[in-house]
Design brief:
Length: about 400
C-alpha cells in the first residue's frame, strides 16, 4: 500500500491515490496534531468529513450501515498513521464536495454560543437544563420566540438563576432577533405544530407531526443556508430523524450532512435505563446495552452488545417506545424527560466532545447511535455487532430511508 503525502498551507495531508495537486513531501513530521486524509465518495450518500477511528476508514470510501460494525483490517499502514488514528487526530475529507479545502481545520476547543428557537414546553425546559448544565462549555444562550413576551420572561427568569458568590459560573441568556438566530455555534430547533392532544394516542404521536413541522423548519433552513451557517443545526422537534433529512434537502447542499444532528435518542436510552433499573431481567443494559434508530417506532434497544438476547431486547424496546404513552395516561404531555435527556444533556455532551446519543447522517439516512463530536470531526461508535442485532438495525435503516424518500416526494 502506497501513501502519498502533501503539504497545503502548512497543513499535512495524505491519500492512497496520487491524484491531488498539492506540494508533495516525502513524509510527515513525527509529532503533529492535525492530519487530513483525502478520499472521494458520492456526496449524495456520504459525509463531507469525519474523524477517522479505525484503519478500515481509510479503505471503505462508500458509506453504508456497515460502518456501525467494528472490523479488523489486514492492510499494512505506517506506524505514525496508526498512532494518529488511535489519538483521533486524523480528519477524513471528502473531495467530492465543493470547497472541500475549507474542512482542513480542527474545531476549536472553546466555549460555544447556542441559540434556541421557540420557548414552548420543550424549548423552555431545554433552556433551563442548558442554563444549569452548560457552564463549562456554553458561553451564552440566545433565545428567540414569535412571542416577545416569552423572550422577555425567560431572559428575566434565566438570568435570575445563580449560585451564591459564584456569579459567572452559569451562561448568560439573551433575547435575540430572528435575524441573529444563526450567529452562533449551535442552532436548536424546538418549534412544533400539531402535537396530538391528550387522549389522541391512536397513531404514533411523533410521526403525525412530520408534515406540519417540515413546513415550519424549511423557513429556518433557508435562513441558515443564506447565512452560510457553519455551526450545528440541532433538531429537537418530532419526528427528529425525518426532519433532519428535510433540513439537508431544503438546504440545497449548503449545509453539510454532518452539520445536522437530531436529538431524540437520548430519552429512549434513558427510558431503557429506567426499566433496566426497575426490572432485574434488563439490568445488563446499564453496563452493556445500546440504543439505535429513531425516537419512536423502529427504535432498536439492545439489552447487551456482549451477550445479545433478541427476545429480551425486543421487550425492552417496547417498554421504551411506549413510555411516553404511560405519561400521557397520567393526563400530561411527556416533554420534561425528552427536553432534558435528548435535549440539554445530549447537547452539552455534544459540545464537550463526549459520547452521547443523537441522530447523524449514515449513508443517506439520519439515524441515531452512540457518537461524539471531536475536534477532528464526528465519530460514530463501531462495535462487534451480533448478526441478529445488525438485522434489526438494517430493518430500521431501510424504513427510515422509505420515510425520507416519501417526505422528499411531498
Amino acid at each position: 500500500m502506497i501513501f502519498y503525502y502533501y503539504l497545503y498551507k502548512n497543513k499535512y495531508l495524505f491519500s492512497i491515490e496520487d491524484k491531488y495537486n498539492y506540494t508533495k513531501v516525502k513524509n510527515i513530521p513525527l509529532h503533529i496534531d492535525e492530519l487530513y486524509f483525502l478520499y472521494e465518495s458520492d456526496k449524495n450518500a456520504s459525509k463531507g468529513s469525519y474523524a477517522v477511528s479505525e484503519t478500515t476508514d481509510l479503505f471503505n470510501y462508500e458509506e453504508s450501515i456497515e460502518l456501525l460494525k467494528l472490523k479488523g483490517s489486514e492492510e499494512i499502514i505506517p506506524e505514525n498513521i496508526k498512532q494518529l488514528i488511535d489519538r483521533r487526530k486524523i480528519k477524513a475529507v471528502n473531495t467530492s464536495y465543493e470547497n472541500y479545502e475549507e474542512r482542513f481545520c480542527f474545531a476549536e476547543s472553546k466555549k460555544k454560543t447556542v441559540n434556541i428557537l421557540a420557548l414552548g414546553d420543550v424549548g423552555s425546559t431545554l433552556l433551563t437544563g442548558l442554563k444549569l448544565l452548560g457552564g463549562d462549555i456554553v458561553e451564552y444562550i440566545g433565545i428567540y420566540d414569535r412571542s416577545p413576551e416569552k423572550i422577555q420572561r425567560f431572559e428575566y427568569e434565566m438570568n435570575q438563576i445563580s449560585f451564591p458568590f459564584e456569579y459567572d459560573v452559569l451562561p448568560e441568556v439573551h433575547g435575540i432577533s430572528k435575524d441573529e438566530l444563526f450567529d452562533c455555534d449551535m442552532f436548536v430547533f424546538c418549534a412544533s405544530k400539531g402535537v396530538p392532544p391528550i387522549g389522541d394516542e391512536g397513531k404514533d404521536v411523533r410521526m403525525v407531526q412530520l408534515e406540519e413541522n417540515a413546513r415550519l423548519i424549511r423557513e429556518y433552513v433557508i435562513m441558515a443556508a443564506d447565512k452560510d451557517f457553519k455551526g450545528i443545526f440541532a433538531v429537537v422537534s418530532d419526528p427528529v430523524d425525518p426532519l433532519c433529512a428535510v433540513v439537508l434537502k431544503e438546504s440545497n447542499n449548503k449545509l453539510l450532512p454532518e452539520q445536522i444532528k437530531g436529538y431524540g435518542l437520548g430519552v429512549m436510552n434513558a427510558r431503557a435505563v429506567y426499566y433496566a433499573k426497575k426490572h432485574k431481567e434488563y439490568a445488563m443494559y446499564l453496563d452493556e446495552g445500546r440504543a439505535f434508530g429513531p425516537h419512536g417506532n423502529d427504535l432498536v434497544i439492545a439489552n447487551s452488545i456482549i451477550n445479545y438476547d433478541d427476545k429480551l431486547s425486543n421487550r425492552l424496546t417496547k417498554l421504551a417506545v411506549e413510555a411516553n404513552l404511560q405519561v400521557r395516561k397520567t393526563g400530561f404531555k411527556p416533554y420534561i424527560a425528552p427536553a432534558l435527556s435528548s435535549g440539554a444533556i445530549s447537547i452539552v455532551y455534544t459540545l464537550e466532545g463526549k459520547w452521547h446519543y443523537s441522530s447523524n447522517y449514515i449513508a443517506g439516512v439520519y439515524m441515531g447511535a452512540k457518537n461524539r463530536n471531536l475536534c477532528s470531526g464526528l465519530e460514530i461508535e463501531k462495535i462487534n455487532m451480533p448478526d441478529e442485532l445488525f438485522d434489526r438495525i438494517k430493518y430500521t435503516y431501510d424504513n427510515l430511508k422509505k420515510i425520507r424518500d416519501l417526505s422528499f416526494c411531498e
